């Protein structure tokens, strides 16, 4: 619903909070249209309400602020440069912990993402076979000790990665000792990602692996996005940099997921 005239700030704030009460989250474009203001003005409005602790800012919008355990909905994926600086120390710790799970001569699958990229940096002198859809990871490992393979398909995204039916089919025909997957968020309901295309690849890697290890840093707890990757029970181990919130931790344990906290 687009307003006939621009609303005053107080009116916009009221409309934003009303929309959050109704749907749980809003996006910048939809609220800018509803208030008949620019997206820049709407971002300032959301930032102001966030500072006043009336909502939770997310990438591309805002989420209702209910409680410490409230789930935050992310709709827009930040580019890899922006993601790489978020909790970089935690991601490096996760990678150092995860590399200890890899044995010589194993065939492993590496998902896309900044934490998987940290893990790739630690595998340069490992005698393993690595399958990945990430061209950035393949480039890091190219010419090093591991044997590196990428599927055929369409090049997609800012990372970039290989996606599409051809890539899914190629990966579905393979078997891996272990897969290391990433996600944009984790809740009691499972693991989530921004991209439907990359999610199809993640599922193929999961289905073909004897052991599934999720590399998820603590900034992604109780966050969800548009595409559900899998349920908690589909993952064998979560490697993270801090203990998850109590409710999430209990749900992970009930699902049979081993939680490994990186030192």
Structure summary:
This protein is of the alpha/beta class and 263 residues long. It has 10 helices and 17 strands.
Walk me through this protein's architecture.
The protein is α/β, with parallel strands linked by helices and 263 residues long. It folds into 2 domains: 65 residues, Winged helix-like DNA-binding domain superfamily/Winged helix DNA-binding domain (Arc Repressor Mutant, subunit A, Orthogonal Bundle), CATH 1.10.10.10; 182 residues, Rossmann fold. Helix 2 packs across helix 3 and helix 8 runs parallel beside helix 9. The chain has 10 helices and 17 strands. The strands form 5 sheets. The protein has a 7-stranded parallel beta sheet with strand order 7-6-5-10-13-16-17, sandwiched between helices. Strands 1-3-2 form a 3-stranded antiparallel beta sheet. A 3-stranded antiparallel beta sheet has the order 11-12-15, covered by helices on one side. The termini are far apart.
